[in-house]
UniProtKB/TrEMBL annotation:
It comes from the Bacteria. PROSITE patterns: AA_TRANSFER_CLASS_3. It is an enzyme of class 2 (transferase). It catalyses: (8S)-8-amino-7-oxononanoate + S-adenosyl-L-methionine = S-adenosyl-4-methylsulfanyl-2-oxobutanoate + (7R,8S)-7,8-diammoniononanoate. This is Adenosylmethionine-8-amino-7-oxononanoate aminotransferase. The modification N6-(pyridoxal phosphate)lysine is found at residue 270. It comes from Hymenobacter duratus. Pyridoxal 5'-phosphate binds at residues 114-115, 241, 305-306.
């Protein structure tokens, strides 16, 4: 057998990629450099990163300010265990974040990705009630089609679907609610009220305002605020999973900033370091933290990771946070939001379009191929390839295609993305059986 020579061939010989059927998948595209909103392949081809490399990149690839801060930290302290020790970057990052988060957030617990940030939150809730002498309170409320990660606790509070089916017997039971999309709020609140009467309910975990992998399904701050208010009346703790929505994606710095009632616990990752290094973080209100304080060591939160509060990751997060808080970044997000709004007005209601959803820098187009919405829609691979043919990186959620670009993406680059979405509509019209098309298109 010849020895693999290209980077893609070498990859295929030794690696196993996420969410990939390795037997049938094409060779991966080898990326060797990043610059702004662009990824540069081994052969020099440039690809516009329309999804921020799985929603993590905020300010563009290889940002010099973040690189300099990381380099400086590497030359100072690369890592120290975080049990019994601390370091300046961890303290400074916690201080800065708590000053920006809702006023009830009082403590920061570091981990290393979004799933672990959620695991920490779930364990906080369960042990909170255990420490309070209420161990029977262990049921979580979640939205249908939600996604909170791929570790076992995070899978348990996520949708039961194809991705988790082999593990269903091992996941703890939860209660699923309909998403309170506009026009359906009353139905969800009625479901919610019935569940809150149960004495075993411990927590409500949610993706605030936007359910990512569900197809960027969106709902309004008012109904979420009301749900949190009812939880608090029932003594139920609320977990806001801001792994995707945090750091400006929905408009304000945090989606929870649009709420009038605040969560007890918040989870962060993805944009936390500007897409530079893996890191997770969970914050909580003072009463949650105080439930673990005792002379009894067994009441402590026994959770940790080897790289908890890694100084280099903290340095990257501090640099990214400084960029995010700058007026220039605010203007960039507002510009992208306005461009998305204009494109939505243009394409909404056109043949082949089922729905267009938009909040902040997130835009999702749900195409109508004459069948139901599905992650495994026959259009998914065609959409993916069409985007690559235009040198654009997208990751369609079946027949839902979303844009979630880095904030440095220019208007010209946004124009390319909108062109690709228009071409996808043309592709959809070729897929739809003729009887499903409006009469005007049959002429």
């Amino acid at each position: 057998m010849p020895h693999p020579t290209s980077l893609a061939q070498r990859d295929h010989a030794v690696l196993w990629h996420p969410y990939t059927q390795m037997q049938t998948a094409p060779l991966p595209i080898p990326i060797v450099r990043g610059e702004g909103s662009w990824l540069i392949a081994e052969d020099g081809t440039r690809y516009l990163d329309a999804i921020s490399s799985w929603w993590v990149n905020l300010h563009g690839h290889s940002h010099p300010a973040i690189a300099e801060r990381v380099s400086e930290q590497l030359r100072t302290l690369e890592h120290v265990l975080f049990a019994g020790f601390t370091h300046p970057a961890a303290v400074e990052l916690a201080e800065q974040l708590l000053a920006l988060l809702p006023a009830n957030q009082a403590r920061v617990f570091y981990s290393d990705n979004g799933s672990t940030a959620v695991e920490v939150a779930l364990k906080m809730v369960l042990q909170y009630f255990h420490n309070q002498g209420q161990p029977a309170r262990r049921t979580f409320l979640c939205f249908q089609n939600s996604y909170h990660g791929d570790t076992f606790g995070a899978m348990a509070v996520s949708a039961r679907g194809a991705f988790t089916q082999p593990f269903w017997p091992l996941l703890f039971d939860v209660e699923f609610l309909d998403v309170p999309v506009p026009g359906r709020e009353a139905e969800t609140l009625a479901q919610f009220d019935a569940l809150l009467l149960r004495p075993d309910v411990a927590g409500f975990i949610f993706e605030p305002l936007v359910l990512g992998t569900a197809g960027m399904v969106m709902y309004e701050p008012g109904v979420l605020s009301e749900m949190l208010r009812r939880c608090h009346q029932a003594g139920v703790l609320c977990i806001s999973d801001e792994v995707m929505t945090g750091f400006g994606r929905t408009g304000p710095l945090f989606a929870s900033g649009l709420l009038t009632e605040q969560p007890d616990i918040m989870c962060f990752s993805k944009g936390l370091t500007g897409g530079t290094l893996a890191m997770g973080l969970t914050t909580c209100a003072a009463p949650v933290y105080e439930a673990f304080l005792s002379h009894d060591k067994m009441r402590a939160l026994f959770h940790g990771h080897s790289y908890t509060a890694n100084p280099v990751a903290c340095a990257a997060a501090l640099a990214s946070l400084e960029l995010t808080r700058a007026d220039e970044c605010t203007a960039q997000r507002q510009r992208i939001e306005a461009a998305h709004a204009a494109f939505r007005q243009e394409i909404e209601g056109q043949p082949g379009i089922r729905a267009v959803r938009h909040r902040g820098t997130i835009l999702a187009v749900e195409y109508d191929p004459g069948e139901g919405t599905s992650y495994f829609s026959r259009l998914r691979d065609a959409f993916y390839q069409l985007a690559l043919d235009h040198h654009v990186v997208l990751r369609p959620l079946g027949n839902v295609v979303y844009l979630l670009p880095p904030y440095c993406t220019t208007n010209e680059e946004l124009g390319l993305l909108y062109t690709v979405l228009r071409r996808m509509r043309e592709l959809v019209l070729d897929f739809i059986p003729a009887p499903n098309l409006p009469e005007i298109l049959h002429d």
